[in-house]
Amino acid sequence: MALDTLKARRREDYGFTLEYRTRWSDNDMYHHLNNSIYYFLFDSIVNTYLIQYCNLHPPTSSQIGLVVHSHCDYFSPIEFPAVVDLTLRVKKLGKSSVEYEIGVFEKGKDEVCAVGGFVHVFVEREGRRPRKEGMGEELMTGLRRIAGEEKARL
Question: What is the domain count for the chain?
Answer without folding.
Answer: 1
